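Entry type: protein chain
Record version: 2
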Amino acid sequence: EVAAGMFEKLLVDYPKSKLRASMLFQAGESRLRLRETVAARDHFAKAVKLPGNEPALAETLTMRLGETQALTNQYKQAIDTYRQFLNNFRESKWLRNAQFGLGYALEKNDKPQDAVNEYGKLLIDPKLIDLWTVRSRFQTGECYFNMQQYEQAIAAFVKIEIGFKKYPSWQAKSMLEIGR
């Protein structure tokens, strides 16, 4: 809270600073740590709009903006932000995060088939099994369930039960969804 206040004071005291994007980022991160997601999102949104951000900062700001838009139920905006991220930062270490975020925002924006297509991009490599893979598989099942395509939903959930032994909590959630 102290850090957030200090960064916000710097923003008022130095409105023309070359470090404004960094100050907004730090204020946003501080607010996010306090679970003040709207305030965090607003800081990230202002910072993204500033011209001349260095690429690493622009990458981080864009990712955080998408995340906080999704956390504050601004799914339409999150879709645009994640698409922007995926187009502009093709070498990012957060590509899988952004790909999942795009799928999730589409799902929450009542576009389940589009979400399934985006989640599918995280399921292409059968050797790559990480949290984004299991989450994408699970959300794919949820999308099929919501589209009343129950056979496909069950198939997605069964794949988690069989193929994701390192994720027992997701296996348990999948079994509950099969029962549902």
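Comment: DSSP finds ten helices and no strands in the chain.
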